[in-house]
Amino acid sequence: MKVGINLNIKPKSMSKFFLFCSLIFSFVMFSQHKEATIDTNLLKTKLHQLVNEERSNNDRKLLGLDAYLKKAADDHAKYIAKAQTLSHEQTVSKKETPKERVYFYGGNSFVLVGENLLFTGIKDQIYSETDLDALALKMFNLWKKSPNHLKNILDHQYFYTEIGFSIDWENKKIYAVQLFGAK
User: Fold this and answer.
1) Rounded-to-integer distance, Cα 25 and Cα 146, Å
2) d(CA 123, CA 131)
3) Which residue has the higher pLDDT, 138 or 17?
């Protein structure tokens, strides 16, 4: 007993059949393709943990998180990514300096504000937790190896921090802004 499929398709309808199959195949392939992603919330948690471990190892108090610093850090990360440059200054009125940005977002109780910036290369991929560990360590080490950035990380006057990110997938870079503050 033979079992088979009888495809009695005429030449004209055969081209429609192949077009239909091609469309289905394309849809399946594109629906399986996933966009490159970085979970910036998890990246922030990992980077914050590394900063606090460094502070703990140097007998400093751990840094808490602050919503006003977060808004200002996110704002400046977007700004420097768009400008494709690292600068602590903005041309936007009322947000020119780190402290003015924190005040702009309602953090008027801060008497001292510091800022670390960086950008680094990223890959066009979906970042796993292991990839995020490596990226957080890479970013932390860039700051740790710079005396002025490490000084901010270890400054005993700071009690709060936040980290903002902006991802430039086109140029494969991630920009980070870490704000520090004391009330």
Assistant:
1) 51
2) 10
3) 138
